[in-house]
Design goal:
The structure holds 2 protein chains of 2 kinds. Helices cover 0% and strands 55% of the residues of chain A. By secondary structure, chain A is mainly beta. In chain A, strands 2, 5, 6, 10, 11 and 12 form a 6-stranded mixed sheet that branches. Chain A has a 4-stranded antiparallel sheet with strand order 3-9-8-7, with no helix packed on it. In chain A, β5 and β6 form a beta hairpin. Chain A is globular and about 45 Å long. The termini of chain A are far apart. By secondary structure, chain B is mostly beta strands. Chain B is built from no helices and 11 strands. In chain B, strands 2, 4, 5, 6, 9, 10 and 11 form a 7-stranded mixed sheet that branches. Chain B has a 4-stranded antiparallel sheet with strand order 1-3-8-7, with no helix packed on it. In chain B, a hairpin with a 6-residue loop joins β4 and β5. The radius of gyration of chain B is 13 Å and the shape is globular. Classes of the chains: A mainly beta, B mainly beta. The interface between A and B is medium-sized, with 24 and 27 residues.
Chain lengths: 114, 112
Amino acid sequence: GNSVTQMEGPVTLSEEAFLTINCTYTATGYPSLFWYVQYPGEGLQLLLKATKADDKGSNKGFEATYRKETTSFHLEKGSVQVSDSAVYFCALRITQGGSEKLVFGKGTKLTVNP
Amino acid sequence: ETGVTQTPRHLVMGMTNKKSLKCEQHLGHNAMYWYKQSAKKPLELMFVYNFKEQTENNSVPSRFSPECPNSSHLFLHLHTLQPEDSALYLCASSQGRQVEAFFGQGTRLTVV
């Protein structure tokens, strides 16, 4: 089946620290991969995406590379800020039975302290 | 602002009440979705509509009844809910095979 596994949180970092949130997936076919972010009290916002192997998605200093050989899409940021505190969701999108499916990981809560 | 609007933002209802959640998008998208987000659980896809037709129902109890009168509007009708149905209900839309989905801010539902 199709599933996403991301590292359990919560993750607590100091400002300017390096961030990695691991994400691996299983999928039939060739999924597109995403990172969504959810700030407190809000819905999900697309952070970045990659649609094929070796693509690198990037936005707001965050990066993730689609690694088909390791079925991974780890999220990284070189220097986090307090404003990055949020819940981060890894997701895959695949077409199955004529329907588009977006499958999410459980989410990783990040807290950045000043 | 993602272009997907959900109302109300917060809802408290008793187990015998009937209420409806509304989702609206004017992005020209033809696919709309309902998700349920509970504490400590993954996001659960509930329903998918493509061109107003329901294409997926993920074994959702009948006390949740979706309605999609047109491609811009999606409703979730609620009746005789249980306390464990308390959650954040998220609506999303996408343009068919376009890769990303756009989410609304959600309705925080509390069943008492």
